[in-house]
Design brief:
The protein is α/β, with parallel strands linked by helices and 253 residues long. Helices cover 48% and strands 16% of the residues. Strands 3-2-1-4-5-6-7 form a seven-stranded parallel beta sheet, with helices on both faces.
């Protein structure tokens, strides 16, 4: 981690909106300069403006997180511009509502590429920078579906659950491989109510909150952002290789 008074840099993939936007804003408010990676350029520009409003710098990169080559380009540009990366949040993801007898091979491959391979792409790109500076932190966004397999009416089914479960294995393995200087953790959100929402939160969100969540509400992006901030800056930190569930205790998931 950076010492007092020095620059701290956080990379957020999928930072244009939703959970990624909330995390980028929270990290910026806590003193990080932010690197945003997304395909949604107008939304990314909005988030960048909010980061600048709290007095932090921001770099924006349009890019498909499934591209290994693009991740290398982003890392090279960040290293040249700022010379360090303290925290990487692999947040980008994509739903896949099709079942095993409906999904095409290309759709399965794309789901794995966006949700799982993207984590490999950006960890592989930024770990050399972290190692050269003496350490860093990584968090990757999994899902409670990785633990439960989801429910029949879930917005994303087996392909998504498979990719998100892969993140948990990757997290545990890399925590061992990259320790002691780099901490690697995963986050498993439950139902999170973002600005656009999804089919489940729009159609059955209040019902699920009332009957299936102990805290009797859906999660908000800021609920995830607070944990992300803790994983990014907590000192001392004896936490690595863990998967944190943030779901208000959703017991039918």
């Amino acid at each position: 981690m950076s010492g007092a008074g020095t620059q701290r840099v956080a990379v957020v993939t999928g930072g244009a909106r939703g959970i990624g936007r909330a995390c980028a804003r929270t990290l910026a408010a806590a003193g990080h300069d932010i690197v945003l990676v997304d395909l949604l350029v107008p939304e990314m520009e909005r988030t960048a403006g909010e980061i600048r409003d709290v007095g932090r710098q921001v770099l924006m990169f349009e890019g498909d997180v499934a591209s290994f080559a693009r991740a290398q380009e982003v890392a090279g540009a960040v290293k040249q511009q700022w010379g360090r990366v303290d925290f990487l949040l692999n947040n980008a993801g994509k739903a896949m509502p099709k079942g095993i007898l409906e999904i095409e091979e290309a759709e399965f491959d794309r789901t794995i590429a966006i949700n799982l391979k993207s984590c490999f792409n950006y960890i592989r790109a930024f770990v050399p920078i972290m190692q050269a500076q003496g350490g860093g932190r990584i968090a990757s966004m999994s899902s409670i579906n990785a633990l439960s397999g989801g429910v029949t009416a879930a917005v994303s089914r087996f392909a998504y659950a498979s990719a998100k479960a892969g993140i948990l294995g990757m997290t545990r393995a890399l925590a061992k491989e990259l320790g002691p200087t780099i901490h690697v953790n995963a986050i498993c959100p439950g139902l999170i109510e973002t600005e656009l929402g999804n089919a489940v939160t729009r159609s059955r969100g209040p019902q699920i909150a009332a009957s299936d969540i102990a805290l009797r509400r859906l999660g908000k992006p800021d609920d995830i952002a607070q944990l992300v901030l803790f994983l990014a800056i907590s000192e001392p930190c004896f936490i690595t290789g863990q998967a944190f569930t943030v779901d208000g205790f959703q017991y039918n998931c």
